[in-house]
Each structure stands twice: as structure tokens, then as C-alpha cells.
Amino acid sequence: MKHCSHPHDLFVASHMVSNNQNLACFRCKLPLFGTCYACSGCNFYLHKFCFELPQSAQFDSHPNHTLGLLYPPYCQSGPCDACGESCNGFTYNCTFCNYNIHANCATLLHSQPQNERDQYVAAFFRHKMSEVKSMRSQLAGSMSGKKQQINDQRDELEYVKKMEMEAELQRRRHNLFMQQMKRASDSIDFMGQIGTSNYTYRYY
């Protein structure tokens, strides 16, 4: 059977492969378990749940548009709007709004819990994702402030360097002017000496 994220046919993986904790699902990056599909020649694996993800979907977090499923290498480089992490795996994307959400995050945020345990797990992860997003937002604000501070310091250093260069230029101009004045003075003294000598010569 085919999957849009892989060019080769996939088959149901053996029990040995499906329970190999050293192998990870291409979509969710979690270790393999349960029913899985595989392309042994490429070491490509998908959980059955991941394999059956819809190619398009609508979510309460972005109700105005239908989101399309993207997969490597076609994922967006921006962060997930749910958790703030980079979108480097299966991602639902809105081309109109540049909205991105990991397929994992979408599953956790929008799936309907079947029992109290699922409800608790979903609530826990939603809370954790909210905390992570808040921390990332604060960090981004702090980094922005530090970046502005660095830019201000760099501008100040450039201003100081400019003033130092201007001062050095003024010093060189002054030295050149003084040298010219000295040469002019020496020339005047020399001409005076010549004039005195001629006068004396004429006197005699």
C-alpha cells in the first residue's frame, strides 16, 4: 500500500519490527509499537495511527480554513503554533495564514478522550504545551531586548570610532597646517636674509 510521504509500497511490519524500541516512526518520532507499516529497504516506518492521518483537516484552533498535511522535506520552517517547536515532522499547514501545527499537537489538542485516563493525559499535555509556548514567548521577548541592547552598544561603539577618526583627522590637519606655517616662516626668514645681504652689498 502507498502513503503520500513515501515513494515505495509499504507492508505490514513483522511483530519483531513493530516492537523494536530502537526504531522510530517517521511521522511522530516515537518508538514503534502495535501495528506498523514499513519499507525495509529505506528503514521507513509508520504507526498505523500515523499512516491513517487525514491529508486535510479542520481544527478548532484554526477554524476558518482547512489545513493540509505536510511532511519532510516539504514542512514549513516556522514554529508550531501550539508548542513553539520547529516544524520538522508531519505538520498541518494553512497556506493562507501561514498557520502550522504538528500532527502530534493537533492530535493531543483536538482528539476526543475516550475515558478519564485519556482525558487526564490530554489535559496534562495541553497544559505542558501552554507552558512551553509561554516560556518560548518570554525567551523570544528577552532575546529581542538583548538584541536591541547589543545593537545600541554597537551603534555607540561605531559613534565613538567615528569621533576618534574625526579627531585623528583634525590632528593630522593641524600638524600639516603647522608644517606649512613653519615652511612659510622659514621661507620669509630666508628671503629676509637674502634682502639684507643684497642691501649690504649695495651699500658697500
From TrEMBL:
<keyword id="KW-0677">Repeat</keyword>
<dbReference type="Pfam" id="PF03107">
    <property type="entry name" value="C1_2"/>
</dbReference>
<protein>
    <recommendedName>
        <fullName>DC1 domain-containing protein</fullName>
    </recommendedName>
</protein>
<dbReference type="InterPro" id="IPR004146">
    <property type="entry name" value="DC1"/>
</dbReference>
<feature type="domain" description="DC1">
    <location>
        <begin position="61"/>
        <end position="106"/>
    </location>
</feature>
<dbReference type="InterPro" id="IPR046349">
    <property type="entry name" value="C1-like_sf"/>
</dbReference>
